[in-house]
Every structure is written in C-alpha cells, then in structure tokens.
Amino acid sequence: MIRHLLFSLAAVAASPFAFAQPVAVYGETIWTGTSQGTISDGVVVIENGRIVSVGPASTRVPAGATEVRAQWVTPGLISAFSRTGLTEVSGVDDANDTGAAGSAFSAALNAADGFNPDATSIPVTRLDGFTRIAVAPQAQSKLFGGQGFLADTSGLTGSVFRERAFAYVVLGESGAQLAGGSRPAAWAALRGAFDDVRFFAARYMSHNEGNVLTRMDALALMPAVKGDQLILFQASRASDLDAIMDFKEQNPALRLAVVGADEGWRVAPRLAELEIPVIVDAFSNLPSSFSQLASTSENAKRLAEAGVTVAIVNLDNDSHLARLATQIAGNAVANGMDFDEAMRALTTAPAEIFGMTGLGVLAPGARADVVGWDGDPLDVTSAPSAVFIDGEAQPMESRQTNLRDRYRTIDESQKPMAYKR
Amino acid sequence: MQFGKLCRVAAAAFALAACEAPGSRDNEAAGKSPIANPFPSTYKPYPSQTLLIANATVLDGAGARIENGAVLIEGGRIKAVGADLTAPDGAATLDARGKWVTPGIIDNHSHLGAYPSPGVDSHGDGNEISGPVTAEVWVEHSVWPQDPGFTRALAGGITSLQILPGSANLFGGRGVTLKNVPARTVQAMKFPGAPYTLKMACGENPKRVYGYGRGTTPGGAPYSRMGNVAGYRDAWIQAADYRKQMDKAESGGGDPPKRDLELETLADVLSGDILVHMHCYRADEMAQILDISNEFGYKVTAFHHAVESYKIADKLADYGVCSSMWADWWGFKMEAYDGIPENIPLVHNAGACAIVHSDSDVGIQRLNQEAAKAWADGKRIGIDIPIEIAWQWLSLNPAKSLGVDAQTGSLEPGKMADVVVWSGNPFSSYAKAEKVYVDGALMFDRNDPANQPVTDFELGQPGEGDRK
C-alpha cells in the first residue's frame, strides 16, 4: 500500500492523526448499516485502517486514541453513479474525458484512463461524506459506453481501486439514437454484440469480422457476456425495463443492474424477483421525455418496498454535484421511503451492487471509511465535520473552501485579494 | 428601489400608479409603448373563503417570526397576521399546529412553458437564436400553459414565477411574470400589473452561440466578450435615439418614430418601465455591465446565476442590484468554475440583495431547500442569519426584482394571500408544502387529490394523477 504510506507521511505534518494511531469517533447517533442498527451515544474505534469496534460510548478505547466527536456517525457514503473525476469543467471539451463521440471504440473505452484524482470535484464530493465513487463513462459513439471503475475520494495517486468494475450500456431513447435511430436498432446491436463475443474465436482470430464490435471492443465486453462482470444498463421506460428483464431470463448468467429506472416502480415485483438492483435519481418526477411519463417521487420508496435493492444518486450534473445524493435521499424519505432504506441507498446498496466488500457499513473488521456529521446526514442543513478513508483523516478543504476563505472578507486597503490565501 | 422608480414613472405617465391597485389595470405594464399592452392579463383570483390559519410558526416574509401565530385571509388578501387573532364569524379555521406558514415562493428565473416537459425538440421555444439582439421577442409567446412543470412547482410552494427567454442572445427578449395557477392560456396566468422585464446575457453563451456556432447557429458577431459589450452598446445607442424621438412625440414635438418591436422594448428599459434581468456569472463582467448601465442611464435590476457575486458583493450592494443565485451549482462551464456554496450568505452579509432562483424544473420544486443549504453553509462560517430574514431570498426579494413587492412577497395586510402551509420547518429535507394558496384560493393540497391539478398532457398517460 504505497499510497497509504505516502499519505501518512503527508498526514504527519498536516493532521494530528499519525499513521496507525487509533481513533475513536464518538457520535450521539451512529448509523451502522448492520444488524446493530442505530446506536445512541456510541463510539466507532479505528485502528490500522480498519474498524475494530462499534458500540456504546462506554466501549473500551485503546490508550492514546485520538478522540473525535460528532452528532451523527455513518459509514463513508458511496456514490453509485457519477462522472466525478472524469472532467474538470464539463463544458470545456479539452477538460472533459467522460465520453468520446469520435472514437472508433466503444465497449473497450476504459473510463479509469480518464480519471484524474486531482480533479477539484473530488474533495468537494468527499467533503459531503462520499468516500467511494462508482464512475461511469458516457456512451457517445455507440450504446456501449465502456468500462466503469471504482475509486476512493482521497484524491491520491492510486485511488482507483477497481478498474473495469462494470460495463456500461445505454438503452431506451438514448440507446436508440446511438444505435441509429430506434429501439429495434439498439436491441439488434446489443444481441449482435453478444454474438460477436460468444463467437469471438471464429470472428476475430484471423479477421476483424464482428457484426457490431471491433476486436478490442469484443474482448473488453467478454467478462460481462460471460457473467463475470456487472452490466449496468441505462433505461427508464417500463417497457425498456421489461425488455432488459426478458434478456436476463434468456441469459440467466448475466449480472445486471439498471440506472435511471424512472418507471421502475411499475415493474418492481419482477425486478425484485430477478434480483436486478436499480440506481435511481429520486428527484425525477417529471415526464421529461416520453420514456419517463410515469415518473414519480415515490419511485425509490415503491421499489424498496417491493424488495428491490435501490441506490440513490444525482443524475443532474453528475460530475460536480454527485454529493447531492444525500439531499435526494432525504427527499425520498419525505416522500415515504423508510429512513434506513434511504441510508442503505447511499451505503450498503451500492456496496452490494458493485461488490465492495467491507465498505458501506460500520462493523468490526470493515474498512475504516467513517464520517462524522453535524446533524442528520440526509437533512440539507447538515454537513460532515470529519471524514476518514481507510482510517486516514481527510483534509476538510477544497478549492471551493479556498475561494470562500479568500472572499469571506473583502479588503483591498493594503493589498489586492490575490495576496490572501 | 427599482420598483419605486417604476411607480414614479408610471404615475407620471398615467393617472393610476401601476403599483397602487393590483389587478386594476394591466395596461400600465406596457409603459410608454405606442399601443397599450396587446396581450393583457385575464387572470382572476379563484374563489376563496375567509380563513384563519392558526397555531402555526409564521414567517411573515418581511423579517418577523411568530410562534403560535396566525394568518387571516379575507377576500383573497392578507387581512391580519399575529399571535392573537380570532376567526371572524363564518370564517373557516385551519389548525396548523406543528406546521409552518410562509409567503408563497417566487422563482424569478424559470423557463417553464418555454422549455416544457417533455423536453423534445418540438418544445424547444426558449431561445430565439436567429440573432444576438432579439429584444423584439416576448417569451410569453412561447409559454405552453400545459407544461406539467407548473404543477410540480405549485406542489413545491411556488405561487409566482418569472419566465425568461434563454441566454443565447445578448438581448434575449421580454420576460413575463406569472401567477402559478393552471390555465388554458398564458394570459390567464399573467400577474396583473406586473412590469415587463428584459432578459440579457453576459459571457460564454452569446459568444459561443454566435461566433463559435460552427455552422449550427447563425454565426457572426459576437465572437468574444469584447464583442458582447460592443453589441450591447450598439443596441443602446439606437434605443437612446428611439427614446428621444418617442419622448419628443409625447410632448407634442412631432410624429412618433416608426414602430420597431426591438427598439420599443429597449426604449422602455431606458424610461424605467421595463426591468433588466441579466444572466452573468463572472464578477468582472458584472462590474462592466454596471458601467454600461450608467453610460446609458438604465438600471440593472438583477444579475442571474451570479456565481461570482461573492467576489464583488460590496460593489453590488453599492449599486443596489440583486443577485439571483443557485445554492451550489458549479463547474459545468468555465464561467461557473468559481461557484461556491456560500455565495448567497456572503452576498446577503455584504448588505446586497440576495435571491434564490432555480433555472430548473427540478430545482423550482424545492427552492426552500436550496435556501436552507445556503443558510446552513453561511452559518458554518459564522454568518448566522435568522430563518425569518433568510426567507426574504425566496419571496420578498424576488418580488422586488419583479416589481410586484407591493402586491405579494410577504404576509402583510392588504397583500395577495399567496400562502404556503408547510408540514414542518421548511429549511429541511423533510418538510413538504401541504397547502398552497394563490390569492387566497386553495390551489394545491398534498392530502387531497381533488386539489392536485393534472395537465392535459398527463391526462390518460401512465402516472396520471399519481403522487408527484
């Protein structure tokens, strides 16, 4: 773990938490995400990057542990879908690596190649309690967007901890457009691509004779087709979700999840039965397109009540404001979703969808991604007061806080503002 | 202050002040145009009852907070607000124990109706990009009253809103202020007596759409920010000349100039009858716009988006211009790169006028939460603003920016009874607008499907009448 060593050297100077020094995070309310439920007046003890205990405030704490106090303590939140770190300024093409409309490749595009841990959106996301992010490419050349990845939000070199975590495939209206203009074209492309992969040897060993995919794309899609890799479909309309579920029944080995799913509540029992998790933006309640006519702010609630695994994200400005998923989850609660379900939608559900073991929970042995809050994490007036990733205290600073601190007081009587930092 | 000026101008031009008797005459809104407003408001308040909303936490919107307070509505107007009100004979009483009551929220930056749902190309009516100066267009001619977004906004406590043209152009056209009631025509939504507004835009959008349109848009100037400024000034020079001819004709010194839709609008800005709402992100650009306004003798009423207002909050306060802002949008383009979540409280703290706006069919549904985020972020850096003061960002300040603050924007006797009853403290993720009154009429009730409007578009569709 070279990066942790490097960070600890920096941390010695920058923070009071020296390497391997135990930390005790006390909270008036501790949401564990486990069968321990919610603990009043408890403590989470961290040692060597792991959680060693979660219990009442009277729990024994190692000698010399640094004490941190917060109103609420939660696991580090997990953003189940974003473009964070792929673009510094979305509207500036030169600074945007989310998609490649002009590329000859599609499924082979590895989003991790575009990830910049120095992106200013990373600390902004971390400061709102998100310690892990699932990042997807944008599909711009074909309905196969490419390979998504998982990263932490430390901003350090090596923060991508799983490349090629999922294959991202766009269906519905967008997929139809990318495939040439219709849903039939999209499904022809999808089925054709699967055949390309299945008959890889025959089609590509001597010639580049895939029906849909180039050799490189077919190779990249192979783990997904074999069921070894998650396929994340984007779709919203109930009929599109049904088509995806038909596809799953025809190909039972596939591991699927759906992002969008605005009309998911209409097919929720079937999603639950086929164990297909969904990633939803619970703000979506408008007929923004003809694929979202039945959108409702109760979508997340209804899906969860039907037994579907639900993650909640912000699909609007998903590169810079992925952090608003907390507000969206709070609104899902206001619209009837159980509070614990809404918390799980930001923690255990994404961990389950992406197979992030030891994350999304406060439990002995889990990785020490821990967040202390100044209030209920789903309420808009709350914010983190402390964030730990793998037990390391994170700097609570971003370019935004730098700008804020510079302009907190405007005074140019002695020197221009540019000298203040 | 802008509204005061408008009243004076209107009073000089007409026997009645535009701000005096709401709903009395819509014609004043047309200012000194040669022909009175050809698209007059036909809005009429819906029937209401005398109602005492009692036992609530009341934010009057003017800066007061009343615990266990009451609001009395009579004849569609606020009759009284206080701690010890009793219902008159025959009045209905709403026991609002545990609930909060505020003025209706006013969003002064929306494109509902002009960019309606569903967002298909056929519905893209918000930008007349045929040229950089299109002051001749009026956005009300693009507004589709069947946009389901209006009903979602109503459920979020929006009782009035300004619809603006987009920001592709230097001069995008006239905006329009609406009461948020479902209607068959846009005229039936127009806020009676509200002055017209003019949408202008700074920065990246005009120069991108025209100069760098790469063949997809008309091309030609402006190619740069300096081209933008030359474009504004050229247009104001023509407008000043047109204004002079109009003034001369009005004082009996000759024939009025040939009618010109573009110059009529600009000339009415110069006379103070039309309020300027300008899309502008960067601090340095806003400062230049203020100089241009001084050069030509008009006033900028509000900068919109204004993500860098915190850098020049002192100058904005001195000039007396409002900043209409998001809580936390940033990073989606270069001129939004320096956006920070404390922008709104920093502007407020400098004594400048702060407004929370949406520019979004999603954000408009919970502007109270956007204000709450900004309020909490301010508090964390030591700017502790009472909620009852911060609520001015949502109602009174936007009302001022639209020239309708004498009629709405606070719960003060005589004003329109535009009122929201919230399930709890609205500075929270968990509070919902339970009842929304427009001119005293109950237009939305979260617990009564009979009081939840369904637009024509959604009728017969999956999800019709569902919880939204």
Secondary-structure topology with pairs:
The complex is a heterodimer of chains A (421) and B (468).
Chain A: H1 2-14, E1 23-31, E2 38-47, E3 50-56, E4 66-75, E5 77-82, H2 121-126, E6 130-135, E7 144-152, E8 160-170, H3 172-178, H4 183-198, H5 200-204, H6 215-226, E9 230-235, H7 238-250, E10 255-260, H8 268-273, E11 278-280, H9 299-305, E12 310-312, H10 325-334, H11 339-344, H12 348-354, E13 370-373, E14 384-389, E15 392-393, H13 399-407
Parallel strand pairs in A: 1-4, 5-6, 8-9, 9-10, 10-11, 11-12
Antiparallel strand pairs in A: 1-2, 2-3, 4-13, 6-7, 7-8, 13-14, 14-15
Chain B: H1 2-13, E1 51-59, E2 65-74, E3 77-82, E4 92-95, E5 100-103, E6 105-110, H2 148-155, E7 158-163, E8 171-179, E9 197-201, H3 204-209, H4 225-250, H5 261-270, E10 275-280, H6 283-296, E11 300-305, H7 313-319, E12 322-325, H8 343-349, E13 353-356, H9 367-380, H10 387-390, H11 396-401, E14 419-422, E15 433-438, E16 441-445
Parallel strand pairs in B: 1-4, 1-5, 6-7, 9-10, 10-11, 11-12, 12-13
Antiparallel strand pairs in B: 1-2, 2-3, 5-14, 7-8, 8-9, 14-15, 15-16
List the defining traits of the structure above.
heterodimer; A: 421 residues; alpha/beta; Urease, subunit C, domain 1; TIM Barrel; 2 domains; eight-stranded mixed β-sheet; 23% strand; B: 468 residues; 24% helix; globular; disordered N terminus
Structure description:
The complex is a heterodimer of chains A (421) and B (468). Chain A has 421 residues and is of the alpha/beta class. Chain A has 13 helices and 15 strands. Chain A has helices at 2-14, 121-126, 172-178, 183-198, 200-204, 215-226, 238-250, 268-273, 299-305, 325-334, 339-344, 348-354, 399-407, and strands at 23-31, 38-47, 50-56, 66-75, 77-82, 130-135, 144-152, 160-170, 230-235, 255-260, 278-280, 310-312, 370-373, 384-389, 392-393. In chain A, the strands form two sheets. Chain A has an eight-stranded mixed beta sheet, sandwiched between helices. Chain A has a seven-stranded mixed beta sheet with strand order 3-2-1-4-13-14-15. In chain A, helix 8 (268-273) links the parallel strand 10 and strand 11 (278-280). Chain A is globular and about 65 Å long. The two termini of chain A are 33 Å apart. Mean pLDDT of chain A is 95; it is low at 1-18. Chain B is of the alpha/beta class and 468 residues long. Chain B has a domain at 105-407: TIM Barrel (Alpha-Beta Barrel). Chain B has eleven helices and 16 strands. In chain B, strands 1, 2, 3, 4, 5, 14, 15 and 16 form an eight-stranded mixed beta sheet that branches. Chain B is globular. Mean pLDDT of chain B is 92; it is low at 1-34. The chains are: A alpha/beta (421), B alpha/beta (468). Chains A and B meet through helix 10 and helix 13 of A and helix 2 and helix 9 of B.
